[in-house]
């Protein structure tokens, strides 16, 4: 810093320009106030199902990635539709989460945190157009609130070992079953 504060010596030429400083008067848009009428959740875009690969291993990875995005989106917005779009009608865990998301919308309850992140994934091809995907997920700590902002429940961050049973029917992949085992 001291080097920047020293002046010219007798052997060095003086400056050939005059520095200009920016105008310190803020413009009206420099620090806009957030729009109180816009809920950040309303600005979230739902995930879109990607064009699934013809390779069953790659397609399985895409389905699980989409499921995680749909799960996170669904709990943030109380919108189960993206999750249902990839779920087989027989997937009890999928239906349970979709019902919870819909219940949140009806009751005004909401969740903060709880996002899932994929840490590891392994795909096993099975017979009859079925695939087993074993994953390790991390889930952030979460808190649920009622419509008035009163805390209802909370959960700690966790590592989750999940198995996804995928099936290829009617030219598309869907999740037929999910199993979870929570660690600490």
Strand content: 25-35%
- CATH class annotation: Alpha Beta
Spell the H/E element sequence. HHHHEEEEEEE
Helix content: 25-40%
Task: Report on this structure.
The structure is a single chain. By secondary structure, the chain is of the alpha+beta class. The protein has one domain: Nuclear Transport Factor 2, Chain: A (Roll). Helix content is 26%, strand content 30%. The chain is globular. The two termini are 48 Å apart. The relative contact order is 0.14. Mean pLDDT is 85; it is low at 1-25.
Summary, kept brief:
This protein has 184 residues and is an alpha+beta fold.
Topology:
Elements (H helix, E strand, L loop, with lengths): L1 H4 L50 H22 L3 H6 L5 H16 L2 E4 L2 E10 L4 E10 L2 E4 L5 E5 L2 E12 L2 E11 L2
Antiparallel strand pairs: 1-4, 2-3, 3-6, 4-5, 6-7
Keywords:
184 residues, Nuclear Transport Factor 2, Chain: A, three-stranded antiparallel sheet, 4 helices, disordered N terminus
């Amino acid at each position: 810093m001291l080097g920047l504060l020293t002046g010219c010596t007798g052997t060095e030429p003086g400056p050939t320009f005059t520095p200009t400083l920016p105008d310190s008067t803020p413009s009206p848009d420099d620090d806009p106030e957030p729009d109180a009428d816009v809920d950040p959740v309303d600005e979230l875009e739902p995930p879109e199902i990607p064009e699934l690969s013809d390779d069953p291993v790659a397609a399985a990875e895409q389905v699980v990635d989409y499921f995680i995005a749909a799960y996170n989106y669904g709990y943030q917005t109380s919108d189960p539709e993206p999750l249902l779009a990839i779920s087989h009608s027989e997937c009890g865990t999928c239906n349970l989460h979709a019902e919870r998301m819909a219940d949140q919308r009806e009751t005004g309850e909401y969740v903060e945190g709880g996002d899932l992140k994929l840490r590891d994934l392994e795909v096993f091809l099975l017979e009859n157009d079925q695939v087993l995907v074993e994953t390790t997920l991390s889930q952030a700590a979460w808190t649920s609130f009622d419509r008035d902002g009163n805390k209802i429940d909370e959960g700690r961050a966790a590592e989750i070992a999940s198995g996804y049973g995928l099936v290829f029917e009617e030219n598309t992949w869907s999740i037929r079953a999910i199993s979870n085992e929570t660690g600490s």
